[in-house]
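lol ok so funny story. i was supposed to be doing the assay writeup but got distracted and ended up predicting the structure for this chain instead. priorities right. anyway since i did it might as well share w the group, maybe its usefull for someone
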Amino acid sequence: MLFFGSGRTKSLTPTEAWERVRRGEARILDLRTKVERRRHGYPPGAPRVSLLRHVLNPAGTDTIYLCQHANRSKLTGWRGAAEIAGGWAAWETAGLTVERP
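and the output, tada:
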């Protein structure tokens, strides 16, 4: 696990993350750009959020961050937030639901 500040980034597989969302235990926030979301789609109900804002003040333990390749999302773990291991590429490989604009 990557250490950033005083916490750790918890990585979940895309399937684990989606199951937590479906059970109402967590939400996914998308750190990708508008262009990335338009080109690739996004998880159902996952809003796009500001990378800078969420790196400085991550949303907390009920939040799972997503980015394209699981690089940006690692920066949010210092307050207990989780990230989707492998990012969007892993989400697509897992065959999970994709919304398109």
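The chain has one domain: 3-93. Confidence is low (pLDDT under 50) at residues 1-6.
back to the writeup now i swear
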